[in-house]
């Protein structure tokens, strides 16, 4: 889903870095303290309980210095893998590798884990940085990747089922609720477009065909031939189904069955909230994962907030004997003999490992971290096919609870006047109200509104700080006015807390080039054919996250993390591998990308 990040002024940054993994904790309180949080609830001590921080970070400089002393100016490969960044993709890759026996070091620029799936606390509110629409938390199937990732490190989170994925408020007063139960959603959609009943059933039926095939497979690296051939022999029809749809886009398939332009525009909106592109540009496999999993596994909100996912994974990583270092700003990937062998931080420290995994965007990885290196041909081709998706303007608000009707849904998508505004900056609005599901996130009698809309970095450059702050307030005022008019009369008068973030905020705190959240096709590409996987043209360097196959979104980046861990594990000798088959498969995949 769409994601965003709070304002730079929201945090107290006078904290020193905290090193993890040097000592093994004897209980959860110690473990959470080593994760960098000062005071934790003492009422629940087991890993599968919900634990919420009361403040942001603690300090232990001496522990930090002693823990990293052995690595300074050393190339003894103390680590098997270094992961740059602790977004969900990076943490899933790191924990999967740690469980397999690898010694992993995660380096995080910020003061808490999670990247765009992090959190912050202010005035009694716990705000999610990004989207509160959480996939991958169910107890069944193979696409419950967050559940699986947590279980791999012995953790389980309490979740609250969301009865409605999203409530659409669209032009011409079209209102559609995406109910958790598939039959209820389809019945409502057909009631809006009765003349398109067969087309609706056929299009979403195609989505289910893809989802069921994907959900039946054990998900590992598509770059590892032993696994790939094994899955093909076990599930040939399912594999052939996915291969058939790999080069196809959702909009093209929708247009085979549906003619009504407004219904096709609705499907554009369905894809846009997942990938920031319309259905014609959205890969069918990606669309199917989301459009079906919201009914199969459902949307489930983690008690205490989305930030608990990353905290639990980070805790699990440390429990496995690996480490995470905060306020560790990687500025260079160190190369020797054409191989990535380590990283250098902004303070001059260096760490070395057998392999490097970058959870940064591909633009940041190859444009900033690999200074002085020629851009590999594969990356040149990637940048010809894909551009940076837009960033976001985000508004985090606390409001008086009585302003919301009692039957208010948790998630809303608002596009009031014209379908052509769907992809324009500030054209459409996504709204999450997580306190509808978990009231503990806000003070009594209050609700959280997290509002975000697409915005370009270019729109926020070249102005003084005073003009910048004034523009933030002006744009936020316009967005809030639209919600007041469409959804909640009197909204402005109910606001008791407000913070605004822009693309500059996203760039600063998430180290994302222009605040982007991943790639967007330049034109109408052939599905996922052009999307790069985890390996790169640089020996020893891998990428993970939203700019790798299968793309943006929590479930997609978790999938990317699982795939990356499997491929890295094979390459460092803790999973089976076949160098001859590896080389042949990688050449084949490279050729297929040229067909996009």
UniProtKB/TrEMBL annotation:
Its main location: plastid. SUPFAM superfamilies: FAD/NAD(P)-binding domain (SSF51905). GO terms for cellular component: chloroplast membrane. Transmembrane segments: none annotated. It catalyses: 7,7',9,9'-tetra-cis-lycopene = all-trans-lycopene. Its EC number is 5.2.1.13. It is found in: Plastid, Chloroplast membrane. Coiled coil: none annotated. Belongs to the carotenoid/retinoid oxidoreductase family. CrtISO subfamily. This is prolycopene isomerase.
């Amino acid at each position: 889903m769409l994601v965003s990040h709070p304002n730079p002024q929201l945090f107290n940054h006078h904290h020193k870095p905290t090193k993890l993994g040097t000592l093994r904790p004897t209980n959860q309180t110690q473990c959470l303290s080593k994760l960098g949080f000062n005071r934790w609830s003492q009422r629940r001590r087991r890993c599968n309980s919900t634990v919420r921080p009361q403040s942001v970070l603690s300090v232990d400089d001496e522990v930090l210095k002693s823990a990293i002393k052995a690595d300074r100016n050393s190339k003894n490969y103390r680590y098997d893998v270094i992961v740059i960044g602790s977004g969900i993709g990076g943490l899933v890759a790191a924990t999967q590798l740690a469980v397999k026996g690898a010694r992993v070091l995660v380096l995080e620029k910020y003061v808490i884990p999670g990247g765009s799936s992090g959190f912050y606390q202010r005035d009694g509110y716990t705000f999610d940085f990004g989207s509160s629409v959480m996939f991958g938390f169910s107890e069944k199937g193979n696409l419950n990747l967050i559940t699986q990732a947590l279980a791999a490190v012995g953790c389980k989170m309490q979740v609250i089922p969301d009865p409605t994925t999203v409530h659409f408020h669209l032009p011409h007063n079209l209102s559609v609720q995406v109910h958790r139960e598939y039959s209820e959603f389809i019945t409502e959609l057909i009631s809006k477009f009765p003349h398109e009943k067969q087309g609706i059933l056929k299009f979403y039926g195609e989505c289910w065909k893809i989802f069921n095939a994907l959900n039946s497979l054990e998900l590992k690296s598509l770059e590892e031939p032993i696994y790939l051939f094994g899955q093909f022999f076990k599930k040939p029809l399912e594999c052939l189904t996915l291969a058939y749809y790999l080069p196809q886009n959702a909009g093209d398939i929708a247009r085979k069955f549906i003619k009504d332009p407004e219904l096709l525009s609705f499907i554009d909106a369905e894809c846009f909230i997942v990938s920031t592109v319309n259905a014609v540009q959205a890969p069918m496999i990606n669309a199917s994962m989301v459009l079906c999993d919201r009914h199969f596994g459902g949307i489930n909100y983690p008690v205490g907030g989305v930030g608990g996912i990353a905290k639990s994974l980070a805790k699990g990583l440390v429990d496995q004997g690996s480490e995470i270092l905060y306020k560790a700003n990687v500025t260079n990937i160190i190369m020797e003999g054409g191989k990535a062998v380590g990283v250098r931080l902004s303070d001059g420290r260096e760490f070395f490992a057998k392999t490097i995994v970058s959870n940064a965007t591909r633009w940041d990885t190859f444009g900033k971290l690999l200074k002085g290196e020629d851009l590999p041909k594969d990356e040149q081709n990637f940048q010809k096919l894909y551009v940076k998706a837009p960033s976001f303007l985000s508004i985090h608000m606390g409001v008086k609870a009585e302003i919301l009707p009692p039957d208010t849904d948790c998630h809303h998508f608002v596009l009031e006047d014209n379908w052509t505004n769907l992809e324009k900056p500030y054209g459409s609005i996504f709204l999450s109200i997580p306190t509808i599901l978990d009231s503990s996130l806000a003070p009594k009698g209050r609700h959280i509104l997290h509002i975000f809309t697409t915005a370009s970095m270019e729109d926020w450059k070249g102005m003084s700080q005073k003009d910048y702050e004034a523009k933030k307030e002006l744009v936020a005022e316009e967005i809030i006015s639209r919600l007041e008019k469409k959804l909640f009369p009197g909204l402005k008068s109910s606001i008791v807390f407000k913070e605004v973030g822009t693309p500059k905020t996203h760039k600063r705190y998430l180290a994302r080039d222009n605040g982007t959240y991943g790639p967007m096709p330049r034109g109408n590409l052939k599905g996922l054919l052009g999307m790069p996987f985890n390996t790169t043209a640089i020996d020893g360097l891998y990428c993970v996250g939203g700019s790798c196959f299968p793309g943006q979104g929590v479930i997609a980046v978790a999938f990317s993390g699982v795939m990356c861990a499997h491929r890295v594990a094979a390459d460092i000798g803790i999973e089976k591998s076949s160098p001859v088959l590896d080389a042949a498969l990688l050449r084949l995949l490279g050729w297929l990308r040229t067909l996009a």
